Protein: 1-deoxy-D-xylulose 5-phosphate reductoisomerase
Amino acid sequence: MEEMSFLKNISLLGATGSIGRQTLDIIRQHSDYFRLSSFSAGRNIEETRKIIKEFSPKLVSVLEKDDALRLKGEFPFVQFVYGEKGLTETALFSESDTVVNAVMGSVGLIPTLEAIKAGKTIALANKETLVTAGHLVMRAAQKYHVDILPVDSEHSAIFQCLQGENSQNVARLILTASGGSFRDRTREELRHVTREEALNHPNWSMGAKITIDSATMMNKGLEVIEAHWLFQMPYEQIDVILHRESIIHSMVEYQDHSVIAQLGTPDMRVPIQYALTYPERLPLPVTKRLNLAAIGSLHFEEVDFDRFRCLAFAYEAGKAGGSMPTVLNAANEVAVKAFLDGKISFLKIEELIGKALEWHTLIKDPDLESIQCIDRETRRFIDSLL
Structure:
């Protein structure tokens, strides 16, 4: 095999989050192939300092202006920017060719759109970008001939299962779901679950918001909408199956009923690295090899949509299309934050999302300004119910 000899300059949005830290692991492991040219962080300034010292980026964005000024005094040879504008500047940094979008929430949309217009390759871990405005993002990617490479383990798995195949031959996409922290509990048992219980995911190491989304199964719902856009697949051909071990990350069934699956240990560094090296592969010594003999057996169950109502909401919003997924996402973000802040109970999350979907009047093909307006209005509506 011919040795790989590329160098990718990376802009990393959300460097101090769970996906961001694991992306830095990949860059650290393969410093001959990747360079961190720019990155964004939020309020974790101590971690930001460590990243600057280790990776020597040329541009760094933080949330607050005061933090940017303070860091500029400490690192005079680094350019510092801040706020949402700084996030976009990071994505557009002239020396970067690849943008890893690992921020949380709909704040990731504008930097992604602008990076696409600038011709950057997008490694996408930010679900909300496609959920909120999938039609705009995919149109832009097509117009500017930009690759959007999935970082989510499920979408990376599907992407890998499609390699060398004709997409016209696909019968359905099958996304696997662990079921989250409460997969064995009845709805009655969910009434009084705590924040700490919800954050205890059985398989994956993720950020707080994604872990709660996993417990409600909204995470899988958002992934269904993402899969619809990434792979141009009707919702009727996207299924979800419960798979406790998180070993099979997703599957593709073809029209001859042959099913191709992608397997691996539950480690996000695998799909992150694949997005960065595609179409090539590199060794990944930091992750464990899959030992199926040691695992022994794998388990699968059908999804109960009455039990996991957030997943049902996601299918409904996705099939309605237009502005409905924007409402779904915004309502979920506010409701999850309220739960994490101790303001509402766990089951109240889905109740609030349901109310938002009933309250909103569908707009079929919203432009960016309309999407941003709907996002704000939905957040205000949910806040009024808290």
